[in-house]
């Protein structure tokens, strides 16, 4: 007689999912805000909007994932930081408009629910939300046997923020003479990992390779989580005259900064003001990747850009230094055609 069919026999373990929820509860408690409300059913996250703080509140929303960086986390069997990457990719898009991140939700699809691994991933998301000052109000874990292997997963998230209509930042505020301030990245963040994996495979490098350019094994260096700038940017906007931000993600510095410029102004930047981290030299050198391709793919050490009134440049740099954010004057805004113009050369690439 054939064995009776069941959800578990098909590869979905409901009990494992429930255990994962229990394991992550303590970590979720760190990612709360006072406006968060309890929903006894658990079907939705509830958040009270404190409109008394605003005359004309505008909601901002953003959604993203972490791309193929998840494959590195899986290869190294280290899952505690990939959630920080997810939060950074979402909230640092929100703050470009001047919005304060309020809350996030996450979605994890996996081939098999391993409770400890799911709790580790969600723990990273919760820690990222804590660093961004927002609440993690809910999420979903879906088991997809047959679509993903037992050790495979992918994750995505969505965030909501709020900003006063009169405080919205963007191209309309940018003026000739404004200073362009760079906020340093922690590495490639969550972009360009398809190219990174291609280079590693072609160069026959191992993730645990000790390379002379790096202070730790290659895979560990590349797993460095995305820097989360949200609270730093909000502090900068509160303490100085910020006109625009640009989150430097896929497409690199030139393409992303151009999105925050009006059509009649350029951002003229000097490569000589900074040196990209050694990990970028490793990618370029072992992969034979041309400099133009590197700059079009990676942030090259600049994770966020602030465009501030020229008279506030030094105050902005001092404020960021006080928050332990590496920052420097990258260039200025000049008459032009809405482009980012990079001049000079780095000390090394």
TrEMBL record:
Catalyses which reaction?
Answer: 2-formamido-N(1)-(5-O-phospho-beta-D-ribosyl)acetamidine + ATP = 5-amino-1-(5-phospho-beta-D-ribosyl)imidazole + ADP + phosphate + H(+)
Gene that encodes it = purM
Top-level lineage group = Bacteria
**Localization annotation:** Cytoplasm
Q: Which UniProt keywords apply?
A: ATP-binding, Cytoplasm, Ligase, Nucleotide-binding, Purine biosynthesis
* Family of the protein in this entry: Belongs to the AIR synthase family.
Q: Which InterPro entries match?
A: PurM-like_C_dom (IPR010918), PurM-like_C_sf (IPR036676), PurM-like_N (IPR016188), PurM-like_N_sf (IPR036921), PurM_cligase (IPR004733)
Q: Which one GO biological process term can you cite for this protein?
A: 'de novo' IMP biosynthetic process
Pathway annotation: Purine metabolism; IMP biosynthesis via de novo pathway; 5-amino-1-(5-phospho-D-ribosyl)imidazole from N(2)-formyl-N(1)-(5-phospho-D-ribosyl)glycinamide: step 2/2
Gene3D superfamilies for this protein: PurM-like C-terminal domain, PurM-like, N-terminal domain
| Domain PurM-like C-terminal per the UniProt entry, residue ranges | 175-339
Q: Which GO terms describe its cellular component?
A: cytosol
What organism is recorded for this protein?
Allonocardiopsis opalescens
Q: This chain belongs to which protein, by name? A: Phosphoribosylformylglycinamidine cyclo-ligase
Which Gene Ontology molecular function entries are recorded, alphabetically? ATP binding; phosphoribosylamine-glycine ligase activity; phosphoribosylformylglycinamidine cyclo-ligase activity
């Amino acid at each position: 007689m054939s064995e009776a069919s069941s959800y578990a026999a098909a590869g979905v373990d409901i009990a494992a999912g429930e255990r994962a929820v229990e394991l992550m509860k303590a970590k979720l408690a760190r990612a709360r805000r006072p406006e968060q409300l309890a929903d006894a059913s658990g079907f939705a996250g509830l958040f009270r909007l404190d409109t008394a703080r605003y005359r004309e509140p505008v909601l901002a929303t953003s959604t993203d994932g972490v791309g193929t960086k998840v494959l590195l986390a899986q290869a190294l069997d280290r899952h505690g930081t990939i959630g920080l990457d997810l939060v950074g990719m979402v909230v640092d898009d929100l703050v470009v408009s001047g919005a304060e991140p309020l809350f996030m939700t996450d979605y994890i699809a996996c081939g098999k629910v391993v409770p400890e691994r799911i709790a580790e991933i969600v723990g990273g998301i919760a820690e990222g939300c804590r660093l961004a000052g927002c609440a993690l109000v809910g999420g979903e874990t879906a088991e997809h046997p047959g679509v993903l292997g037992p050790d495979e997963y992918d994750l995505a998230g969505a965030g909501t923020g709020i900003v006063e209509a009169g405080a919205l930042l963007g191209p309309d505020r940018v003026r000739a003479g404004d200073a362009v301030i760079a906020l340093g990245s922690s590495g490639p963040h969550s972009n360009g990992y398809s190219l990174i994996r291609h280079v590693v495979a072609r160069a026959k490098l191992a993730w645990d390779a000790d390379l002379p350019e790096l202070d730790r094994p290659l895979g560990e260096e590349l797993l460095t989580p995305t820097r989360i700038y949200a609270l730093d940017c909000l502090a900068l906007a509160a303490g100085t005259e910020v006109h625009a931000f640009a989150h430097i993600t896929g497409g690199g510095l030139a393409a992303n900064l151009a999105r925050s410029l009006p059509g009649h102004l350029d951002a003229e930047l000097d490569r000589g003001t900074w040196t990209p981290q050694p990990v970028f030299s490793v990618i370029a050198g072992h992969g034979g990747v041309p400099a133009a391709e590197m700059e079009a793919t990676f942030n090259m050490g600049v994770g966020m850009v602030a465009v501030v009134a020229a008279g506030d440049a030094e105050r902005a740099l001092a404020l960021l230094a006080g928050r332990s954010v590496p920052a420097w004057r990258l260039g200025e805004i000049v008459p032009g055609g809405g482009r980012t113009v990079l001049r000079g050369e780095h000390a090394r690439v």
